[in-house]
Amino acid sequence: MSNNHPIYLTEEGLHKVKEELEYLITVRRREVAQMIAEAKAEGDISENAGYDEAKTAQGFLEGKIRELENVLKKAHCCVACRYCEANCPHGNISFVDGMVSISDNCIKCGLCNKIDNGCLVYNSLLLPKGNGKMRKGSIDEYATHHPSAGWLNAFIESKEMFSTTNNCGYNKPAFSMYNKFLRDAGLITSKSLEPLANILFERGIDDEVVWGLMFANLAYAPQIGWLVDNIQFNTTYTQAEIKSTLESYITTATGPRNITRSYGNIAKLPISAVGFGNVISESKNGFEFIRTPWQNPDPRVILYSLYKFAEECGDYYQFTLSRLLNHEIDSDGVSPTQIFGLDREKMEQLLNGLSINYPNFINVSFTHDLDNITLRSEKTSKDVLSLF
């Protein structure tokens, strides 16, 4: 399939791109993941040709997925600004009556599909530092001060806000990052403790429910949000691959390294079990990382995440499961299916249970291949915390 063919900007062409993208994500990813798993099961991977072949296939696949996602995003934003025409190094793009035309001499270099530097309109929509699909703020939130169990243990022991570095023993930079993480996780505001903090105090640092609630909040923060948006479930990534991908989103010299290392450190916390991801191997060349779905999600956490989604979408309290499962739609809200890795079958089970047990919060119906989810608009995500 030609990546620069003008059919991509027609309804028929976009449909074909979507079909191929769905196949690569839902079928081919699983095939490649199975190839990697089988190769690793053979033992030492240092001289395993099958493993090298599988990882090469994975790199090609992820590059193809990113390219097709860029095509869809660019087609969505295109207003015929002609920036790609001006920047085509081979002069093979032109616009006629507002429609793009690609010359037969096109060498299929793909540069016109690099939306972060080849599309004026899309680039104008990006946040500072070129953070494509990103939450507001810099991705490199915590610099070299990675969130740790020590941070939360200090918070639990004090059960109060830290107003100065003297209270917690951290130096000024670490103290700033520490407070930022607590805010991102929904434990504090700039002035007070949040209700989630009391749940943490009661249930402790090792409780999956607590981490599920915090992850639902952290998904809206830039650094963890980037991982949720860009690192796929059930796909193995090397530390170098994550760092390389980050380099497309952040221009600082140390940022991609800091963020990648922080992901490896955060994965040592219980958040790893609720969909954040695990470090599955480490060597002198770095670690290997994989996100796996939350195996036993607490329905109340999913309800909390649904309310967060609705609130971030402008208090839009009625939507479909199909919408929640479509992660390609640009949205301020982050679906719990994307955060926790939940498929349609699991979500139907959870939603039906929530509708029965918490009718004052949610109503769902699945009839005749139609689905509808309605949250009670008089309730909020903070009200859901009262259920714990």
Can you put this structure into words, describing what you see?
By secondary structure, the chain is mostly helical. The protein has three domains: 120 residues, Transcription elongation factor, GreA/GreB, N-terminal domain (Helix Hairpins); 142 residues, no CATH class; 89 residues, Orthogonal Bundle (Arc Repressor Mutant, subunit A), CATH 1.10.10. 50% of the residues lie in helices and 9% in strands. Strands 3-5-4 form a three-stranded antiparallel beta sheet. Strand 4 and strand 5 form a beta hairpin. Helix 12 packs across helix 13 and helix 14 packs across helix 17.
Give a short account of the largest sheet.
Answer: 3 strands, antiparallel
Helix content: 40-55%
Roughly how many Å is the radius of gyration? 22 Å
Oligomer: single chain
Note the run of SSEs as H and E. HHHEEHHHHHHHHEHHEEHEHHHEEH
Strand order of the largest sheet: 3-5-4
Average pLDDT score: 81
Structural class: mainly alpha
**Strand-residue proportion:** 5-15%
Total number of helical segments?
18
Query: What is the terminal-to-terminal distance?
Result: 51 Å
Low-pLDDT segments: 1-8, 120-134
Number of strands: 8
Structural domains: how many: 3
- Sum up the overall morphology in one term: globular
